[in-house]
Amino acid sequence: MHTETSDSGLIELLRERGALSISDLTTVMHVTATAVRQRLSRLMNQGLVQRDITKPPRGRPSHCYSLTEKGRRQTASNFADLTLALWQEIRSIKDSETRRGLLQRIAKKLAGHYEQNIHGNTTAERMQSVSALMADRNVPFTVDRSGALPVLTAHACPYPELAEQDRGICSVEKMLFSELLGEKLRLSDCRLDGANCCNFVTN
User: What is the pLDDT of residues 85-107, one digit of tens each?
Assistant: First the structure.
């Protein structure tokens, strides 16, 4: 298999499945760990893949690999230009109350499309449904239940091009998740502020 094809296959796996370990990649791709490391090294040098440390409750920390925002943009098939144009029109509305009301209606409309996928009696269970919903859209999310309150974590931005231009999209995402969970959320950590991921917690 050619290097370009191998690298593309690895990128596609990360796009579809989110963060994976070298062991995961060797199993799925049927190649040696050395070959996987070589491809990962090339892709990290190109800024397409990042390495993170995962710390399980027990045992030693391990590394997992996922696409960077650059990698996701390069592999994404979306309507970015249309989305940006529509967002610019929304943001051009001068009256803040009118603009916020429109964004809330958009969040509710999106929630209406997704609500049949949300299940569970607790916030953590519903967060897990949101995580699965986003995974179906190739955006890796996880739920941390180790603390007093569950945390919904976005390991990549669903709207990377938009967020780079205007972080107001974070408010829409927060509104959407609040609607789906039936809980008011706050964004405790944000990638735009230098955090490794975006964390949503209940107020």
Answer: 888 899 899 999 999 999 999 99
Count the neighbouring beta carbons within 10 Å of the beta carbon of residue 151: 19
Question: What is the model's pTM?
Answer: 0.60
Distance CA 112, CA 24 (A): 35
The 10s digit of each residue's pLDDT in 39-73 is: 999 999 989 999 988 776 777 878 899 988 778 76
Q: Are 160 and 74 in contact (CB under 8 A)?
A: no
Asked whether 166 and 151 are in contact (CB, 8 A), the reply is no
HEC string of the chain?
CCHHHHHHHHHHHHHHHCCECHHHHHHHHCCCHHHHHHHHHHHHHCCCEEEEEECCCCCCCEEEEEECHHHHHHHCCCCHHHHHHHHHHHHCCCCHHHHHHHHHHHHHHHHHHHHHHCCCCCHHHHHHHHHHHHHHCCCCEEEECCCCCCEEEECCCCCHHHHHHCCCHHHHHHHHHHHHHCCCEEEEECHHHCCCCEEEEEC
**C-alpha to C-alpha distance for 85 and 71, rounded to whole angstroms:** 22
C-alpha gyration radius of the chain: 18
Nearest Cα neighbor of 141 from 125, 129, 192 is 129
